[in-house]
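HUMAN: Ready with one sample?

ASSISTANT:
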Amino acid sequence: MTPTDPRKSADTLIVFGITGDLARKMTLRALYRLERRGLLNCRVIGVASTEMTTAEFTAQARERIAATGQTVEDDVFQRFADRVTYLHGDVTDPALYLRLAAEIGPDHTSVHYLEMPPTLFGPIVEQLGAANLLHDACVAVEKPFGHDLASARALNARLRALLSEDQLLRVDHFLGKEPVIEIEYLRFANPAMTGLWNRGSVSAVQITMAEDFGVEDRGKFYDPVGALRDVVQNHLLQVLAAVTMDPPADAGADTLRDRKAEVLKAVRTADPRRSVRGQYTGYRDTPGVAADSDTETFIALQLEIDNWKWFDVPFFLRAGKNLPVRATEVRLILHRAPRLAFLPTPHQAEQNQIVLRIDPEPGARLQLVGLGEETWRPLYLDSSFAQELGEPFEPYERLLNSALTGDHSLFTREDSVEEAWRIVQPLIDEPAAIQPYTPGSWGPDGAGSLVHGRPPWHEPWLPGAER
């Protein structure tokens, strides 16, 4: 959590959409937890269209924080409530920004957090600029950053007309997850890992993001998006970058982001022939989903990296809804050992694996083999991050704290966003045919064919599971 850039810490946080779904589930809880840790050192101004007083809003906020399962302590919440001011108004109305400017006052360092639909990013930033509220300020925006390469470039151009790149914080909550951050330290602080982390040792990499629920009540949002845009273009490609980048030369945010951009530039554009799209049975009956929807709720694809370290190592990514479990992991599968003829019944041992579990209960596993009862048996060396490293910051705690303290290393830069869209653009232009799959299965049969000749898909390592 150490700031790495010389920007001043912000003394004012403005949250646009403070009564919305993201604030209800994540933002208010994160701010309360930062207050509990003694790390919230700024005013909080909430902006939304609902007409209510500050007192009414803080009462609502307490209920919403408690509804997340967070224990609310009276003294901690009162300290948080004393920081809060609520403003209601239409974000397209210039009068709102005049009132906001008066509330902020002169000579303050602000973070404007836009928890709003992407169509409002441009209009809000332009209103902030017209009200002279962008000086010495940053603007944080939630994904999606466009819906393809062209729209991402257009959005960047519109925002960059008023903001420098250093002022623009693109929020991807995966970058705030403890195990994603821990990848950097596992790789570069441990020579035992560094020596294995390349094509000389790794035969294939599998990155899985599985959800054991469907679209539910989000059909209207999800149907124009699909799994590729929802989680692969952003979350999983950022994880891939963390897994494969070279070590940063210093602690600067841009040095880290340079390394991620470099490796994404080396990723070949995806081949639609090496992808599989699926849709679970019953998806089209979801409210808000088109009756003839061609949207994928599952996608699997193969990527390759054209650089010295990773050439000829296949990276298999899959993500989907209504799968058997909820789990996100990275699995490096090492080359096979040779057949060992001195054994009573010689055969090849199972390949060693390095597994990083991102969700649930982050942890790391080294899978080895040993001989038991004259046959190979797996040996698991497991570690739980929470048990070994202490209670981690939750993603939005970490991201909000980083934004407020001037550490931009956990936010996505323009070049990485555009490279990620470049990689998946062929899958948007020429999508593979949709294959149906049964809810509770591991997706369509074609996903297995994608890894033919390579290690098969492995079921994720779950808490308490031996395999």
User: Anything to note?
Assistant: DSSP finds 15 helices and 15 strands in the chain. The radius of gyration is 23 Å. The CA atoms of residues 223 and 289 lie 6 Å apart.
